[in-house]
UniProtKB/TrEMBL annotation:
Gene transcribed to yield this protein: nrdI
Residue ranges, compositional bias (Polar residues): 20-56
A Pfam family reported for this protein in Swiss-Prot or TrEMBL: Flavodoxin_NdrI
Residue spans of biased composition, Basic and acidic residues class: 1-16
Name of the protein in its database record: Protein NrdI
Length: 223
């Protein structure tokens, strides 16, 4: 169940960790803002724009080789997380401390620099990204993240988003999560500040694991 703006247990942090896998509609990430969500109908999905070029050309990623995870799932593989972290590396350190591979979860990192090979993910994943923009919600999503999500195939596998930020940015705190949830039609599952706390790590690790386990159970029931 989606618990947007849940103020009971964990304030605004707890979002939808128990949400079953939802649908998502292809959308252009270009000009995405939280205050002005732009939903593109599925019928227009092939026209999704490429934010990296600013054109309306579909981003053709149908025939590319899938990327290898940075952290490979150990034991039974149940799902994946994709994350971005800038040079300050806060999100990378948070991801490391969650120990996803030990939970059977592949970990992929969106490249920092344009000359690095683009990330191509071909399995369901939860996206974990920091917010940028310095308080300007229209710039909250970094170009690297937009470029990744503008890949038609990449975007088709997103199942939820978790965002980090700094509370000093007030209304723009974790705005990247709101934008991605709105544009990709997936639950905004959780937010945390900077490196996160030990409690944040537990909530995210357990939440992501349970999300994928629940999804597997639901799939098994429908067979
Ligand atoms: C230039 C800059 C702009 C930022 N803008 C925002 C913002 O608008 N909202 C927010 O919640 N956090 C903002 N932050 C805080 C980052 O999201 C936070 O430091 C995050 O932990 C960075 O993660 P990373 O080190 O993995 O890149 C900003 C940080 C920087 C350096």
């Amino acid at each position: 169940m989606i618990q947007k703006n849940d103020e009971t247990d964990h304030g605004e942090k707890t979002r939808a960790m128990n949400e079953t896998i939802g649908t998502n509609t292809d959308v252009s990430m270009e000009s995405a803002t939280a205050s002005q969500p732009t939903s593109v109908p599925a019928s227009q999905s092939s026209q999704a724009g490429n934010a990296s070029t600013g054109t309306q050309e579909p981003f053709d990623d149908e025939c590319v080789t899938p990327s290898e995870p940075e952290g490979k799932a150990q034991g039974k593989h149940i799902g994946a997380v994709v994350y971005f972290s800038s040079i300050s590396n806060n999100t990378a350190r948070f991801i490391e401390s969650c120990g996803f591979p030990e939970e059977g979860i592949n970990v992929y990192r969106i490249p920092l620099r344009p000359k690095e090979a683009p990330l191509q993910v071909r399995e369901p994943y939860i996206l974990i990204v920091p917010t940028y923009g310095g308080g300007d919600i229209s710039k909250a999503l970094l170009p690297q993240i937009r470029k990744f999500l503008n890949g038609h195939k990449n975007r088709s596998f997103i199942r939820g988003v978790i965002s980090s930020g700094n509370r000093n940015f007030a209304t723009a705190f974790c705005a990247a999560g709101d934008i991605i949830a709105e544009k990709c039609h997936v639950p905004f599952m959780y937010n945390f500040e900077l490196l996160g706390t030990a409690d944040d790590q537990c909530q995210v690790r357990d939440g992501v694991r349970n999300f994928f386990l629940n999804a597997q159970s639901s799939q098994a029931e429908h067979r």
